[in-house]
Specification:
It contains twelve helices and 28 strands. It is α+β, with helices and mostly antiparallel strands. The strands form eight sheets. Strands 22, 23, 24, 25, 26, 27 and 28 form a seven-stranded antiparallel β-sheet that branches. It folds into three domains: about 300 residues, FAD/NAD(P)-binding domain, CATH 3.50.50; about 100 residues, no CATH class; about 160 residues, Sandwich (Jelly Rolls), CATH 2.60.120. It is about 20% helix and about 25% strand.
């Protein structure tokens, strides 16, 4: 038995757990991250290979709404975009591994399953995890415990209250819920990849594969178009099954049936005669781990409901946001041949997700992020997607670090939400309707000018309190005092932005937020069709590439930072020691594609 003592234990290293761990670690908390698989990423990993979608509804929102998630997820997406142009699934795994390994405050335990939790009253005081590959058992003691396992194993072991299934319509007044509650959920899927070859590639399915007819798949495949090859290289999310069973206890049976479905669908494509264009295509990879959509959902201090999502209700403790449609699937999956594979209910605006949805109702130091957060089945159908899970993970990791650092009980932590929000905004998260009012930031007190400005994009907007344009349809930033792009845009390159103070200021850090085209789709995907809609394999064209930061000291300009080849949105530049200066300027020499400079925000921090 190995004993570990830490500030925060996070169980689950998927799209919620990784940002949660990184956010908490960057706020100074010691974190143990336990992941029961050999790789990080969950449904986004090489083991499942689903692309990360989120509030931008995969291009379904208007272009003037920059809905793509920022913060840690944006940092990772930009890194993959530039450093993994070949879209390697295992390099995505490596990117997540690097993200975690580069944080000295994180202890990562891969191939390690959380198996037990001991409570003392209404607090967890110890958890146990097992790693069979090394025949080790870990006893982990923490101040805060966060369940990002998806299935809710940590919370289950601690005895936290949860629900499983679909609520009745009258329970929360949800018009899109069914009339009678049941235990059914969304099902699971197995994805595949196929490759086109230079010669015919025959296919013989296993004897146990399903047999499908055109009638079975008429609502799922474009059977009447014998020329298209869309989806042959990557499919199919709708090859779904198992929602009428228990997606946890019946997971092995579900996997076996999904394999039979996958090979049966491929058999229909290859051998039915309906798709002659598939002759040279062959399977290259397929998943063995079901991509699970739904299982347990914990009961928190607030249960997010359909009206929270559709009306974008304001919450004083918002720590993340969503915007994906309410995406309901028939629990029977492909066996519901007469039903479309999904039903999308449009979500008009970006909506906030409160911290209380991530706090256990009955255990004071248990939190959760990801698809097991506190929501009804209908609301969960929007929050469950991985981009939203990542945003919630960053928000909760930031909150948990503050709770541990200041020993805050649940009520005090909720009351501290305005401070948590400002920390999140500083770290490039976005919160609908919340303006940055960082009390440490010296930039708003400066006179801000530039050597050129585009109409509607003056230099002063780098301190507007917002870092993206969300004032159009689909955004929820009320009563903006500065409608427009919320960034400075020069007329030409090179260009210079300057901040000047009446008396010298003392600072140690300059933080810049650049434009990375948040109105566009950007996510690692194995789908050629989806990737064709992105700027992939190179930096985003709007992003500042080469620049210098200079300060004015003793009547001379001094270069304190020289940056070349940037492709990230958030650049944090620290001086070796505190510097005292009365003027600071950012001299932009080149972008990654545009003929002008764009800066969304400047912060000067002590």
């Amino acid at each position: 038995m190995l004993f570990l003592k830490t500030d925060i234990l996070i169980a689950g290293g998927g799209p919620a757990g990784v940002p949660c761990a990184v956010a908490a670690a960057r706020e100074g908390a010691k974190v143990v991250l336990v992941q029961d698989r050999p790789v990080l990423g969950g449904n986004a990993s090489s083991e499942v290979r689903m692309h990360i979608v989120g509030a931008d509804a995969f291009g379904g929102r208007e272009l003037e709404v920059e809905a793509r998630e920022g913060g840690i997820l944006e940092e990772f997406r930009l890194q993959q975009c530039v450093e993994n142009p070949q879209r390697s699934a295992t390099l995505l795994d490596l990117g997540l591994y690097n993200l975690v390994r580069n944080e000295p405050n994180i202890t990562l335990l891969l191939n390690t399953a959380l198996v037990a939790a001991d409570c003392d009253g209404n607090r967890i005081h110890r958890a146990r995890a097992v790693r069979h590959s090394t025949e080790e058992t870990f006893e982990i003691e923490a101040e805060a415990y966060i369940d990002c396992t998806g299935d809710g194993r940590l919370g289950l072991e601690a005895g936290a209250a949860f629900v499983h299934g679909r609520e009745a319509r009258e329970r929360f007044g949800e018009q899109h819920a069914q009339e009678v509650s049941d235990s059914k959920t969304l099902g699971s899927s197995l994805l595949y990849q196929a490759r086109r070859h230079d010669q015919p590639m025959p296919y013989t399915p296993p004897a146990w594969a399903r047999t499908f007819t055109a009638e079975d798949l008429r609502l799922r495949l474009r059977i009447d178009d014998p020329t298209h090859e869309d989806g042959l290289e990557y499919g199919f999310w709708w090859a779904e099954w198992g929602g009428e069973l228990n997606t946890i206890t019946d997971n092995e049976r579900i996997r076996d049936e999904l394999l039979a479905i996958l090979f049966g669908v491929w058999d229909f494509i290859k051998n039915s005669g309906r798709f002659p264009q598939s002759a040279n295509w062959a399977l290259d990879w397929f998943g063995w781990i079901p991509g699970k959509r739904e299982s347990r959902r914990f009961i928190g201090r607030h249960i997010l409901s359909e009206s929270d999502v559709l009306l974008a209700r304001a919450h004083s403790d918002t720590i993340a946001y969503g915007g994906w449609p309410i995406d309901l699937h028939p629990p029977a999956g492909v066996d519901a041949a007469d039903e479309p594979p999904c039903r999308h209910i449009h979500v008009p605006n970006l909506y906030g997700i409160p911290l209380r949805c991530c706090m256990a109702r009955d255990i004071d130091n248990l939190y959760f992020a990801g698809r097991n957060l506190s929501a009804t089945h209908v609301a969960f159908a929007s929050t469950r997607v991985m981009g939203t899970c990542a945003a919630v993970g960053q928000g909760l990791g930031t909150a948990a670090a503050l709770a541990v650092r200041e020993n805050l009980d649940p009520e005090a932590l909720v009351a501290a939400a305005p401070r948590i929000q400002q920390l999140l905004l500083r770290n490039d998260a976005f919160l609908p309707g919340v303006r940055s009012r960082d009390p440490e930031d010296l930039a708003p007190s400066a006179r801000i000018s530039a050597d050129s400005e585009q109409p509607g994009a003056p230099a002063r907007l780098v301190c507007s309190g917002f870092t993206r344009a969300t004032h159009g349809p689909g955004g929820t930033v009320p009563a903006q005092t500065e409608p427009g792009p919320h960034r400075w845009m020069s007329l030409t390159l090179p260009a210079t932005l300057e901040l000047a103070w009446d008396r010298p200021v003392r600072a140690r850090t300059v933080q810049l937020i650049f434009d990375t085209g948040l109105h566009r789709i950007l996510t690692h995907s194995q789908s050629d069709k989806f990737t064709a809609r992105m700027v992939w394999g190179r930096p985003q064209p709007e992003t500042v590439k080469d620049y210098d930061v200079e300060i004015f000291q003793e009547d001379v300009w001094k270069t304190v930072h020289t940056v070349r080849g940037n492709f990230q949105r958030r650049n944090t530049l620290s001086f070796s020691d505190f510097e005292v200066f009365s003027r600071l300027r950012v001299r932009v020499h080149a972008s990654n594609g545009t003929d002008h400079a764009r800066i969304c925000e400047v912060r000067i921090l002590p």
